[in-house]
Amino acid sequence: MEQVDIFKALANKTRLQMLEWLKEPELNFPGQKEAGYEQGVCVGQLQAKANLTQSTVSEYLSILQRAGLVTATRKGQWTYYQRDEAAFERLSKLISTTL
User: Fold this and answer.
1) d(Cα 95, Cα 89) in Å, to the nearest integer?
2) Residue pLDDT, tens place only, 5-54
3) What are phi and psi of 94, to 5 degrees?
4) What is d(CA 46, CA 8) in angstroms, rounded to the nearest whole number?
5) Whole-number Å distance between alpha carbons of 86 and 84
6) H helices of the chain, where?
C-alpha cells in the first residue's frame, strides 16, 4: 500500500462517502438485506446510492481497491466491495506516527 496512492484515493468527496457507507452496510444499503452483507455491497447498490453512472462508481471503487482500502469479491456476474478495516488501522497508525 503506497502512501501517496492512499491519500490520492481519499482526496475525493464521493470516494470518502462510499467508504463511510461501506463502514455500516446494513444501515446504508437496506436493499441488499435479502442477499446479505458477508461478501460486501454490490456495485449496483453503491451506484444507486451515489446516483452516478456504473462506470464512474466502478472507477472510484477500482481506485480505492488499488489503494488497499477496499476488497472485491466476484460472485457470478456481480462484484461486491467491502472496506479493509485492517488497512484503516494501518493508516491510523501511519498518521499518528507521521504527523
Assistant:
1) 10
2) 899 999 999 999 999 999 999 999 998 898 889 999 999 999 999 999 99
3) -60, -45
4) 20
5) 5
6) 3-10, 13-23, 25-28, 43-50, 54-66, 85-98
C-alpha cell at 13: 468527496
| 70: three-class secondary structure by DSSP | strand
Residue pair 84/61 in contact (Cβ under 8 Å)? The answer is: no
pTM of the model: 0.90
| Full domain range(s) for residue 57 | 3-98
Q: Could you give the 3-state DSSP secondary structure of residue 35? A: coil
CA distance 56 to 62: 10
Number of domains present in the structure of the chain: 1
